Amino acid sequence: QVQLVESGGNLVQPGGSLRLSCAASGITISRYVMGWYRQAPGEQRELVATAPIVGSIDYAGSVKGRFTISRVNANNTVYLQMNSLKREDTAVYYCTARQDWGSRPNYWGQGTQVTVSS
Q1: Cα(14)–Cα(53) distance, rounded to whole angstroms?
Q2: Residue 23 backbone dihedrals phi, psi, to 5 degrees
Q3: Per-residue DSSP letters for 38-97?
Q4: Rounded mean pLDDT of 91-105?
Q5: Band of pLDDT at residue 112, cut at 50, 70 and 90
Q6: Strand partners, 22
């Protein structure tokens, strides 16, 4: 069974930082394009960051310079470091995995809540 389990979501003040983790099982993440999506209530799902198997990392314009996606293949874990958080970053954050030739994620995590509020 494939599982992507996110953790690290929390309540944080504007300007603060959080690090989200995505622990994968049932797949080897080095063989997958890994990503982070987010969805706020009443809003469309947004692709935040993508870590390719090989190549450059992509970020949504709204998070460039503030968020960093990384992977530790030996631990089968993907991270999203979030700095200088804004209230508009409040959302449920989802970890995803897709095959390199795919157009949509093959697997989704359950999500972890990030709330930015004073």
Answers
A1: 32
A2: -95, 120
A3: EE-TTS--EEEEEE-SSS--EE-TTTTTTEEEEEEGGGTEEEEEE-S--GGG-EEEEEEE
A4: 96
A5: very high
A6: 6, 78
In contact, 64 and 114? CB cutoff 8 Å = no
Structure tokens at 53: 């198997």
The two tokens of residue 8 are 């690290």
Determine the 3-state secondary structure of 23 from DSSP: strand
Longest pairwise C-alpha distance within the chain: 42
Burial of 23 (0-12, 13-18, 19+ CB in 10 A): middle
Task: Calculate the alpha carbon distances from 20 to 42, 46, 80, 113, 114 in Å.
Answer: 23, 16, 5, 10, 9
Residue 16 confidence (pLDDT) above 90: yes
- For the stretch 30-61, pLDDT in tens is 999 999 999 999 999 999 999 999 988 999 99
Q: How far apart are CA 79 and CA 84, in angstroms?
A: 16
